[in-house]
């Protein structure tokens, strides 16, 4: 499974890259607005920093405007993937982008039927929003299971990119179901490292060695 960071914060991305755990980045208008930075320069800066795919989202909702903004985003860097909303105009644009060799990430997916349409349109990625489904009393992971199964049944190339991740449990469940990618906030990436028994065990090892009075180089 690949890990993408869902952020617009350069320091978070750099830390994740230093850890060797970040394969790509997803960002959106909300995240960039919170960062206080300009839109296109922020996407370009992230794409320059990250060797893997960087999803930058269009702000338009009409077909022609989606094409104009998507082409502009794609032109920022070779690794930019155009994030498009799951609407009729959006999927029409996805099909056009596919013909032009522009990769797309179809966002705001909340049903298997929507995911099937995105794959047929030629999306490179589909982003089911599992956390938001959980918020309204549905089971987000059921959607991931359905989409993975459908894509496998028909040999679609579209990758399942699990989004709206809230906890390490979401990551483990998505990986168990065979999702290709999970995009996660930096705090969830940090949480993946944590286990109290790891901390206890490390403290014990160090304490036991300290009792010997020796240093690392001594035989």
Overview of the structural elements:
There is one protein chain. The protein contains eleven helices and eight strands. Strand 7 (159-162), helix 9 and strand 8 form a beta-alpha-beta unit. It has 219 residues and is an alpha/beta fold. The mean pLDDT is 96. An eight-stranded parallel β-barrel has the order 1-2-3-4-5-6-7-8, surrounded by eight helices. It has a single domain (2-194), classed as Alpha-Beta Barrel (TIM Barrel). The longest helix has 17 residues, at 196-212.
Based on CA inertia axes, which overall geometry fits?
globular
Distance between the termini: 41 Å
Extended strand count: 8
The protein's oligomeric status is single chain
Number of domains: 1
Strands side by side in the biggest sheet: 1-2-3-4-5-6-7-8
CATH class: Alpha Beta
Mean of residue pLDDT values: 96
Largest sheet: 8 strands, parallel, barrel
Instruction: Look at the helices and sheets and give the structural class.
Output: alpha/beta
- Sequence stretches where pLDDT stays below 50 over 5 or more residues: none
Count the DSSP helices.
11
What Rg is obtained from the alpha carbons, in whole angstroms?
Answer: 20 Å
Structure, briefly:
This protein has 219 residues and is an alpha/beta fold.
Q: What are its keywords?
A:
219 residues, alpha/beta, TIM Barrel, eight-stranded parallel β-barrel, 11 helices, 8 strands, 54% helix, globular
Question: Any chance you could write out the topology, listing elements then pairs?
Answer:
Blueprint: E1 2-6, H1 10-19, E2 24-26, H2 29-35, H3 39-49, E3 54-57, H4 63-74, E4 80-85, H5 88-100, E5 104-109, H6 112-121, E6 125-128, H7 130-135, H8 140-154, E7 159-162, H9 168-177, E8 181-184, H10 186-193, H11 196-212
Parallel strand pairs: 1-2, 1-8, 2-3, 3-4, 4-5, 5-6, 6-7, 7-8
Helix pairs in contact: 4-5, 5-6, 6-8, 8-9
């Amino acid at each position: 499974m690949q890990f993408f960071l869902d952020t617009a914060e350069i320091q978070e991305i750099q830390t994740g890259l230093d850890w060797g755990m970040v394969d790509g980045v997803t960002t959106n208008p909300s995240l960039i607005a919170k960062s206080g930075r300009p839109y296109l320069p922020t996407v370009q800066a992230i794409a320059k920093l990250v060797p893997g795919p960087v999803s930058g989202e269009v702000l338009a909702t009409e077909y022609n405007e989606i094409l104009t903004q998507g082409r502009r985003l794609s032109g920022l860097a070779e690794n930019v993937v155009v994030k498009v909303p799951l609407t009729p105009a959006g999927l029409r644009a996805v099909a056009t982008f596919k013909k032009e060799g522009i990769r797309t990430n179809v966002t705001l997916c909340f049903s298997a039927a929507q995911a099937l349409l995105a794959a047929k349109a030629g999306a490179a990625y589909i982003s089911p929003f599992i956390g938001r489904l959980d918020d309204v009393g549905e089971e987000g992971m059921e959607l991931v299971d359905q989409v993975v199964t459908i894509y496998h049944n028909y040999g679609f190339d579209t990758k399942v990119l699990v989004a709206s991740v809230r906890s390490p449990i979401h990551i483990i469940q998505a990986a168990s179901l065979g999702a290709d990618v999970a995009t996660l906030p930096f705090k969830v990436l940090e949480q993946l490292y944590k286990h109290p028994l790891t901390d206890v065990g490390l403290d014990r090892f160090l304490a036991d060695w300290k009792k010997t009075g020796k240093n690392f180089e001594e035989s």
